Amino acid sequence: AWKDNMRDVDKDVPAITKSFVSHVQTSLARQPYNLDTLGAYQAAALSVRDNLLVNWNETALQYTRRAPKRAYYLSLEFLMGRTLDNALLNLDLKQPYAQATQKLGFNIEDILEKERDAALGNGGLGRLAACYLDSSASQELPVWGYGLRYKYGIFQQLISPEGNQLEAPDPWLDNQNPWELPRLDVAYEVRFYGNAERVRDENGNTTDRAQWTGGQEVLAVAYDVMIPGSYTRTTNNLRLWESKPKRGFDLNSFNAGNYEGAVESSNSAAAITSVLYPNDSTGFGKELRLKQQYFWTAASLADILRRFKNIGKPIQEFPDYVAVQLNDTHPTLAIPELMRILLDDEELPWDAAWQIVTNTFFYTNHTVLPEALEKWPVPLMEHLLPRHMQIIYDINLFFLQSVEKKFPGDRDRLGRMSLIEEGFPKQVRMAFLACIGSRKVNGVAELHSELVKTTILKDFVEFEGVSKFGNVTNGITPRRWLDQCNPELSALISSTLKVDKSVWLKDLYQLEKLLPYAEDAAFREKWAAIKQRNKERLAHHVETTLGLTINTHAMFDVQIKRLHEYKRQTLNILGVIHRYLTLKNMSKEEREKVNPRVVFFAGKAAPAYYIAKLTIRLIVNVARIINADADTKDLLSLYFLPDYSVSLAEVLIPASDISQHISTAGTEASGTSNMKFCLNGGLLLGTVDGANIEIAEEVGESNVFFFGHLTPAVEDLRYQHTYHPVPIEEKCPALAHVLNQVSAGLFGDAEVYEPLLNTIRQGDHYLLSDDFDSYIAALAMVDEAYLDRTEWVKKSIRTSAKMGKFSSDRAINEYAESYWNIEAQHIS
Ligand code: 26V
Question: Which of 50, 437, 538, 685 could be stapled to 655 by a disulfide with Cβ–Cβ 3.0 to 4.6 Å?
C-alpha cells in the first residue's frame, strides 16, 4: 500500500524501460544498442534516482511543514558501500528493474557489480553510521546525517609479491556519482586562524563574549545523498560538505605578483576535504585533521541553526527541535562552536547558552583504548581556533569550580578531570569535553558501557551521577546484511515463516519463529544447501578476481576486520601455523580424520602501523608456504583477500561457517561483523568481549565457542607480564614452538618478523601467551562440532533465529526514544 502513493514513481516494466532508455539517450548521450554494462549501470542508477527524488522531496516537504523535533547524526565516516541494489530492494523495485534491463540485454547482477563502493570510512564506526541511516529512514524517523565528501575514501590496498601492504588512492568519484546532488546554493563560510578579542563591558571589564576576525575563510558546499527507507516513502538525507576556496584565488596576492601564493591558498581550501584519515585510533595532532573536524561541525551547525530559525521559535527552544548525536569525539568542536554562536552572535548569557548546549548534544564513545582517545595540542587549537580555545578554557573554569564545590580541596581530582591535560604541550581532552557538554553519554555494548563508567569516565560518573551514562548496543541493518547479501536465505525465511520479508525485515525478532525448524530435517537440508551455494559464490568470486581455486568442501573460517594488535589477527595466524605443524607431524591415517579448513583473512592496516603491516606480511607468506604443501593443502589452506570492503564483506559473510572475534577481553567495544556472521548462520568463535557477550546471551552459550581470560583478569595479567615475566617457553610451550619456527625462517624472511614476534615475547600487552592454549582448545572444539553436521546446522539455525536484538532498527529506536525524544513521521 505504501507504494500506491508513489504516483510519480516508475513501478512497472514499461515505465522503467522508458526511463532507462531516456537516460541512456539524454543523460549519457549514448545509444541503447551499443551500451556497455557500465553505461547500463549509470542509466539504471539515474532512473532509480529519479524515483528516490520523488520520495526525498516529499519527505523534506513534510518535515518542513510539520516541524517535528529532528535528530542529526554527526559522523566523520559513513561507510556506505554500494547503493543501487540497496535502493532497489528498499523500494521493492528489484524485480521490475531486473526484467526491464533483461529485455535490453543486461543481467541485473552484472549491472550491480559495476558500481564502486562509497568507502568514506575506516571500519566499524563508519559502517555503524551507514546502518543507522538505513534504520532511521526505515523506521520513518526524521534523522539526517552530516559528514564530509572526501575526494579520496579509504585507500585501496594492494599486496606486493613479498606480502607488504601498499596503499593506492581511491578516486571513487572518477566515474561520476549518480547518488549525490550538488547543492551549490547551500554554502557556508568557515573561518580558521585569526584573532579573538574579548568584548568589554561599559566598565572596561572583559565579558563572556568575543569577536573573532581575520584568518582564512573557506566555503563549505553541500552535496546531498538520498537515504531510502525500506518499504516506506521516507527518504532521508545525508549531507556531505565539500571545501572550496571562498574566491577562486586571492586577488591581493595575485596583484602583488604572487601568483603561486594565490593559487596555494585556493589549494589549501580544497585540501580540507581531500582525504579520509586512514588511521583509526592514532594520528591526532595533524592540523589538517583538526581543520576537517571544525570545517564540518561549523558548516553542519550553521545549517541546523538556519533550519531551526525557519520555524520561528525563540532560541531557548532549540533543544526541543534539535538533537545532535556525536559519533565519537570527532565532532566535539560542535560544543564550543554552538557556545560561540549563542554567546557571540545570539548574545545570550553564559548560563543560558550552556543550558541549550548541554540539552542538545549526545555523545557515543566507541573505544576505551587510551591511545585512541583524542587529545589536541593547546598551541595548535589556539592557533587554528583562537575563539574556541577561549571558550574551552571558560568551560573548564566553570566546570572545575563546580567540581571543587562538590569535592572541596581534592586537588588530584581536579587535575584528573581538567579538560586540559598538563604536559609539553598541554592537550585538550576531547572525550571529557564531549562528556560534560552532552545530555547523555553512551557506550556501544553492555560490557563496553560499564568500562566507560569504571575507567575513562569514572570521575565524571561520581560527579554527574550515573544516570547520565547509558548503553545502546550496536546493531546492523538486516536489509543489507541479510536480504541483500544472502537473497536465498532471505527467501527461505519468508517462505518458511509465511511472512513477507517487508514485515520480518523490519521486525527481526520474528526470526525466532525459525527455532522449531532446527528440528526439521528437510529445512536443515535447505539451510545447509544455501550455505554451500554461498561458499561456491565466494569461491567463484576469488577464482575470477584472484585466480585462486578454493576447496568449497572445507569449513570456511573467516576473520575480516581492520588490522589491529588488540583484535589479535596474530593469534589467528599463529594458530594456523600451529595447526600446520600439527598436521605435518601426523600419519596419513591420522590426517584422514581431520576436518578440512580454509582460513580467510581480509582487512586494512593503517599505513603507518608497522606491526599491523608485518602481520599481513606474515599471513601472506604463511599462505604461500602452506597452500603449496602437498601433504597438507587439502586439509588446510589460507587466503589473504586484498582490499577488504563492504562489497567484499557481502560475499564473505554469507559463506562463513565460523568467524573469529578474538580481541583481548575488554578491548573491542562492540564489534558489528560478529552480528552479521551470526545473522547469516555462521557460528562465532570469540573471546568474552564486546557484543560477543550479548550474542551468546541471545543464542545460548552452547551455540558459541568462547575462550580466553575475562576482562577483570586482564589488568593483573599485564601487571605480571611487566613485573614478573615468565619466559614464554615455560609459560606456553606450544606458542613458543610456533614463534621459534617463524624465527627459524619456515616462512622465509627469518629476521623480518622479529619485531612482531617480540611484541609477544616481551611485554605481550594483548595477552596472546595467556590465551593461546585455550584458543587452540576452542579451535579443536569447533572441529569436533563440525564433524556432527546435523548438530552444526541446528546451531547455525538457532544462531540466526536469535539475532533479532541486533537489528539496527532496535538500536536506532533506543536512541530515538531514550535520548533524542523524536517521533516517527509517516509520509503518505
Ligand atoms: C579514531 C581515529 C583517530 C585518528 C584519525 C582517524 C580515526 C578514525 C576513527 C577513530 C575511532 C576509533 C574507534 C572505533 O572505530 N571504534 C569501533 O566502533 C565500532 C562501532 O561502535 C565498534 O563496533 C568497534 O568495536 C570499535 O572498535
Answer: 538
